[in-house]
Amino acid sequence: MQRLQAFKYELRPDGQQARQMARFAGSCRFVFNKALALQKANHEAGGKYIGYVAMAKHLTEWRNGSETPWLKDAPVHPLQHALKDMDRAYQNFFAKRAAFPKFKKKGQRESFRYPDAKQIKLDQANGRIFLPKLGWMRLRLSRPVLGELRNATVSYSGGKWFVAIQTAREVEQPMPTATSAIGIDVGIARFATFSDGTFLAPLDSFKKHESRLRRAQRAMSRKVKNSRNWRKAKTQVQKIHARIGNARRDYLHKATSAISQNHAMVCIEDLQVRNMSKSAAGTDDKPGKNVRAKSGLNKSILDQGWFEFRRQLEYKLAWSGGMLIAVPPHNTSRTCPGCGCVSADNRPSQAVFRCIECGHKGNADHIGAINILARGHRAAACGEDVSRAKPAKAKCAASAKQEPTEVTCSGSMPAMGAVGIPCR
Ligand SMILES: [Zn+2]
User: What pTM value is reported for the model?
Assistant: First the structure.
């Protein structure tokens, strides 16, 4: 089984290299925007879509012309890759997977990619990497790079430069070491509640830094735009954002690693985060209700990173030989695991579950997790409609059309007997 994996490290450029990288990222943004503008103008004039090959010829003209001769200073492969990015943005738009491509702004996700592994040299013994037109550069090699190099992406975030090195390597088909199954209910009050009764505390990384962030943003708004002090204040804001991101990533990775190592089968609700976090404001004709409250909830949901949680579970379980089962979320928090009675009255409050038929009591999230696990068992073992899950991203977009009773399943599917999951 081939495993693709990216390894990301902080770069330690000298002043010259840092300036070069900023310039290269700017050139790639310029090429992306110029190509997008050309594509738009061409469409308005009634022309056909300009494919990548034709666009690359334009790039050669831009590089050799007199208008933008500085494009010649940037490495050509990353510039071509910017065109590929734009082409893919259009393809995603044509396939209705994404909105219409947008122009890139300076200072947002500055990055560029070297798509050709032959041009990159990695010297792990001395902790350095060779990149075209930048030369040898030191990097913080916090762990070894495994596998064969595929490409390298340089990016800038929170005042630092990073390189993500993508590799491919052959690994043996994993056999799950764990044998247990678990259901997970995600929520606001508790980030995740497990069917065994344990739970993960909410990840309020954003809340914790919110006041600091607000102060830094206020300080930035008082400065003259593009002045030296404004740029300093902006770096401060970006640093806080980077911190928030790091805290969140760290938390999620630790949680998903532990779950995927300890369980062979993980059942979650097939939540449509995109629908849940849709803007509540509505349109001018149809203003939304409870806009303030809902926007608070949205922030909470996005802050929690449920979608990322699911994405990580999906690939980590595939790596460990386990599987992820996404079950339809209907009534999981209203069904009694004792007698099977389904009623909204079973849930007198957000946190409490009390069955009106048999009096079964418990924490509502815990009951939800138990129901999710039971549903997952039925789906996996007794052949309720189980189809392979599409990749998480595509799924999110296709969510609207999904059948309400469909149960999706991903990862490898070991024989149920082998993992010891009873059939109910
Ligand atoms: Zn009951």
Answer: 0.74
Q: pLDDT, tens digit, for every residue of 213-254?
A: 889 999 999 999 999 999 999 989 988 888 888 888 888 899
Q: Are strands 199-200 and 160-170 parallel, antiparallel or unpaired?
A: unpaired
- The rounded Å distance from CA 374 to ligand 1 centre is 15
Beta-carbon neighbour count of residue 31 at 10 Å?
28
Q: 285 an active-site residue?
A: no
List pLDDT tens digits, range 321-341: 899 999 988 888 888 988 888
Distance from residue 178's CA to the centre of ligand 1 (Å):
32
User: Parallel, antiparallel, or unpaired for β 128-131 and 121-123?
Assistant: antiparallel
**Sequence-separated (6 or more) residues with CB below 8 Å from residue 117:** 148, 149, 150, 151
Among candidate residues 269, 270, 303, 314, the one labeled active-site is: 269
3-state SS class at 100: coil
Q: Is 365 a catalytic residue?
A: yes
Is 123 one of the catalytic residues?
no
Please report the DSSP string for 354-396 in residue order. Answer: E-TTT--EEEHHHHHHHHHHHHHHHHHHS-SSEEEPPPHHHHH
Cα angle, residue 418 at apex, residues 413 and 423 outer, rounded to 5°: 80
